[in-house]
Automatic annotation (TrEMBL):
PANTHER family: CELL WALL SERINE-THREONINE-RICH GALACTOMANNOPROTEIN MP1 (AFU_ORTHOLOGUE AFUA_4G03240), HYDROPHOBIC SURFACE BINDING PROTEIN. It comes from the Eukaryota. GO terms for cellular component: extracellular region. The keyword Cell wall biogenesis/degradation does not apply. It comes from Mycena rosella (Pink bonnet). This is Hydrophobic surface binding protein.
């Protein structure tokens, strides 16, 4: 019985070691932002490739798959930013610049998907506009969470600029979401 108790205690310690949150680094956050940027570009390209008329279900589902991948990466990025904590002025500027660099791509994707709502609605299988709406709502939530984590950890003098960036992107989401409601 004593050996069984020691085994349980040892397994508990082992499990606790893996349950302890791991401190992340700015380099990890920058890698997350690079992944987010690449996935935003992939999503934007898939949306641009979807024609204004005569699109296919496969192309629409590719957009959904790309959105789902981006959602996962945004959530991981939020987790990593939160675990990193407050960043230095130089790191904050680097991170903000990296996000600003792909802001136009996000806004283009949102503009394009809003404009192509009739093409998605015209697909022979219903439900695609509802799926896109769900993706847009989830991406908006995930993007806001990621942005809020970045703002919380940014140096004080960069918070206003980061907030403006977040508001611009959120407004883009609101416009795209409105097209599908």
């Amino acid at each position: 019985m004593v050996q069984f108790s020691r085994l349980i205690f040892s397994l508990s310690l082992f499990a606790a070691a893996f349950a302890t949150p791991v401190k992340r680094t700015v380099a990890q956050v920058e890698a997350d932002i690079a992944s987010i940027s690449a996935q935003v570009t992939t999503l934007d390209n898939a949306i641009k490739a979807f024609p204004a008329t005569g699109g296919s279900l496969v192309a629409a589902l590719t957009i959904h798959t790309d959105a789902t991948s981006l959602e996962t990466t945004l959530n991981q990025g939020t987790s990593d930013v939160t675990a990193t904590g407050t960043v230095s002025e130089a790191d904050g500027r680097t991170i903000l610049s990296a996000v600003e660099a792909f802001e136009p791509t996000i806004l283009d994707a949102l503009t394009q998907i809003a404009a192509k709502q009739p093409a998605f609605a015209a697909l022979p299988i219903g439900g695609i506009p509802a799926l896109i709406l769900q993706d847009l709502q989830t991406l908006k939530t995930d993007t806001v969470n990621f942005s809020n984590a970045l703002i919380a950890n940014a140096p004080a003098d960069l918070k206003a600029e980061a907030t403006t960036l977040t508001n611009n992107i959120t407004n883009g989401f609101n416009t795209a979401i409105a097209a599908y409601q």
